[in-house]
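Notes from the 1:1 (GR / supervisor)

We went over the backlog. Supervisor wanted to see one worked example end to end before approving the batch request, so GR pasted a single chain during the call. The sequence is below; no edits were made to it. Supervisor asked that the structure be written out right there so they could see what the output format looks like.
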Amino acid sequence: MALSLYDASIPGYVRALQNLASFFDKAEAHAKAAGVDPASYLPMQFFPDMANLTRQVQLASDAAKSAAARLAGVTAPSFPDTETTWAEVKARIAKTLDFVQSIKPEQVNGDETRTIELPLPGRTMTFTARDFLFQFAQPNFFFHVTMAYGLLRHQGVPLGKMDYLAGGQQIPA
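Structure output shown during the call:
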């Protein structure tokens, strides 16, 4: 059986969003044990011209919900980038996960060669659905999830490779 576009996209987004949520759970426990407010992690960034932790989550959220919506041919929900608290950032992850999980295989599968246009400032990128997923959407999403992981790890949160890959979930044998 061939790998479907749905199988190559939605389950991976779901798993990574669940893992991202688990990073925040571990970060919250780490902050509590250290006697610090976990919200102190939100403005952290690697370099002044890079997005901070809050923005990395917003960008990961936008990447996941927008990709899922484009692949399914539906409109992505609009989440204004107004999160300023730990609880709001965690809620953003949960809302994104809920939307991505609502996408069904029949919405995504069947026409991997259809055109997807991605309007950007100053230009529009045009892809087949397959190329959009593999050449743009997934790399963009995983970049921001990785940055969030790295920022939390840099603050001493005890995250490891298996947290990134499995987030405390069992990986099938």
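Supervisor's comment: Strands lie at 115-120, 123-128.
Batch request approved.
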